[in-house]
Amino acid sequence: MKLNSKIAGLGYYVPERIVSNQDLEKVMETTDEWIQERTGIQNRRYGKPHEETTTTMAAKAATIAIERAGIDKEAIDFIIFATLSPDYFFPGCGVLLQRELKITHKEAAALDIRNQCSGFLYGLSIADQFIKTGQYKNILLVGAEMHSMGLDFTTRGRNVTVIFGDGAGAAIIQPTEEEGGILTTHLHSDGSHAEELAFINPGCHGGYHLGKERFGYPEQEYGGIFLTEKMWKEEDIYPNMNGQLVFKTAVTKFPEVIQEALDKTGLKSTDISLLVPHQANLRISQFVQKKLGLSDDQVWNNIQKYGNTTAASVPIALTEAWEAGKVKKGDLVCLAAFGSGFTWGSALIRWI
């Protein structure tokens, strides 16, 4: 008996607080026009500081997905949690989510993955393999981010800060004997530009490798550096991004990895019912749409409302599209992402 894997339930959660471009104008030198022209973003959501966390948002999204899948939470036998903004340095959010959901049986396993914007795609591929081998039957896959607690709200940090928002998305992956489901997944990485989109400090590198060359931190014979006085004084403790390089690479890798999936399955871009891209930048999505010859009705974008929610963006967008009736049985759904690492990936799903 051949097992395929399917998405049996979807859910998402975004915080109540809406932060507009006009709100950001009050704390940094920027304008609504400048932000929209470069990113397409109008608003984003921020969680409640010290009340909401990456894990609590994930739990709300997961609860919805579990209910829609028609299963009890105790049926979850594997948790895959993708995030770049975990509650703690360690342990990871997977076990925290297990606790938050009050999944009490000890047979469940939890896996944390750090593939940033591509996290949900990487997690989907992992879940697909575990389902097809029969190892697990009800996998909870989550992408969640609490970006707002780690951004630089000054003019210096605006290129990064204006882009990101908070939120969580979740999916239940199950086996099926039906034809369809997850048809193929494709994952790639290239670490040669790792520091061009990164959150380098605080960290354990001790100034090693490019950190030493670019930032002048002394190498440590023993131990590493989490946070130094120099980092604190120079406020070198925020994310950085080479926007031009990221954009240039993304518009190349997005179409390539989508075409790779189509070639693998013998399908064409015209067969795609709906493309759900990672919500990195509306201009990137529009470029990819044009490259593939897709209509506006074949692409789901919501970055205008939520900003870039990194690992959460694909499941949030997919859930929204499904709720809006844009994803129906028999549809060919394409997911794609590109982000820090660099990492990128795609998936084709024949919706069951």
What does this structure look like?
With 352 residues, this protein is of the alpha/beta class. The chain has helices at residues 21-25, 32-39, 54-69, 93-100, 119-132, 158-161, 210-215, 229-233, 243-265, 282-292, 303-306, 313-323, and strands at 4-13, 17-20, 43-46, 78-82, 109-113, 139-145, 167-176, 181-189, 197-198, 240-241, 274-277, 332-339, 343-350. 33% of the residues lie in helices and 22% in strands. The strands form 4 sheets. It has a 5-stranded mixed beta sheet, sandwiched between helices. Strand 4 (78-82), helix 4 and strand 5 (109-113) form a beta-alpha-beta unit. The relative contact order is 0.19.
Question: Summed up, what is this model?
Answer:
The protein is built from twelve helices and 13 strands. By secondary structure, it is an alpha/beta fold. About 5% of the residues have low confidence.
Structural class: alpha/beta
Per the CATH scheme, the topology name of the largest domain is: Peroxisomal Thiolase, Chain A, domain 1
Instruction: Give the DSSP E fraction (strand runs of 2 or more residues).
Output: 15-25%
Q: What integer value in Å does the Rg equal?
A: 20 Å
**How many domains, as an integer?**
3
Query: Major beta sheet, specifics?
Result: 5 strands, mixed
State the CATH class of the largest domain. Answer: Alpha Beta
- Give the quaternary arrangement of the chains: single chain
Q: Residue share in helices? A: 25-40%
Number of strands: 13
Order of helices and strands: EEHHEHEHEHEHEEEHHEHEHHHEE
Annotated CATH homologous superfamily of the largest domain: Thiolase/Chalcone synthase
| Spatial ordering of strands, largest sheet | 1-7-6-4-5
Number of helices: 12
Shape verdict:
globular
